[in-house]
Amino acid sequence: MPTSKQTAHLDHLTIFVSDADRSREWYTRTLGLKVEFEVASPRAVALQDSGGFGLFVEQRAADECKPSCIVTFRVEDVDSLAHTLRANGVKFSAAPQKLFWGYGAELRDPDGYLVRLWDEQSMKAKGS
């Protein structure tokens, strides 16, 4: 336990991907993340959500890119976003519905990471 009065603040999450450029395109196009900066070696892209949280996609060999976490995004309206994404050809593992974790949707990024989408209003109204 820290002895100082400092507190920790989650700043970013790094996931290993097989193609950083493909992941950059998927996260910016699908979820609207913005590119904060890019690094040539090792190939990595720092993406940022609208709240300032960073998702780093770091390119690694394919055998090092086994999805090891779930990436969850709070969005403004999960039903509306899912409708738009489906119209643009994005496939969902689970369309917006009541799931064990509440009301939301699930999809997979290009490397197979599970991406969950939810919104506060739907979670309160439909998630219990």
Q: Hey, roughly how much beta strand do the residues contain?
A: 35-45%
CATH class: Alpha Beta
What overall geometry do the principal axes of the alpha carbons give?
Answer: globular
CATH superfamily: 2,3-Dihydroxybiphenyl 1,2-Dioxygenase, domain 1
**Number of helices, counting only DSSP H or I runs of 4 residues or more:** 3
**Structural class label:** alpha/beta
Looking at the structure, the CATH topology is 2,3-Dihydroxybiphenyl 1,2-Dioxygenase, domain 1
The helical percent reads: 10-25%
Strand order of the largest sheet: 1-4-3-2
What are the low-pLDDT stretches, counting only 5+ consecutive residues below 50? none
**What Rg is obtained from the alpha carbons, in whole angstroms?**
16 Å
Overall mean pLDDT = 94
The CATH architecture can be given as Roll
| Major sheet attributes | 4 strands, mixed
How many angstroms separate the termini? 34 Å
What order do the SSEs take from the amino end to the carboxyl end, as H and E? EHEEEEHEEEH
Report on this model:
This protein has 128 residues and is α/β, with parallel strands linked by helices. It has one domain (12-126): 2,3-Dihydroxybiphenyl 1,2-Dioxygenase, domain 1. Helix content is 23%, strand content 38%. The chain is built from 3 helices and 8 strands. It has helices at residues 20-31, 78-87, 120-126, and strands spanning 12-17, 34-39, 44-48, 54-59, 70-74, 92-99, 102-108, 114-118. The strands form 2 sheets. It has a 4-stranded mixed beta sheet with strand order 1-4-3-2, covered by helices on one side. It has a 4-stranded mixed beta sheet with strand order 5-8-7-6. It is globular.
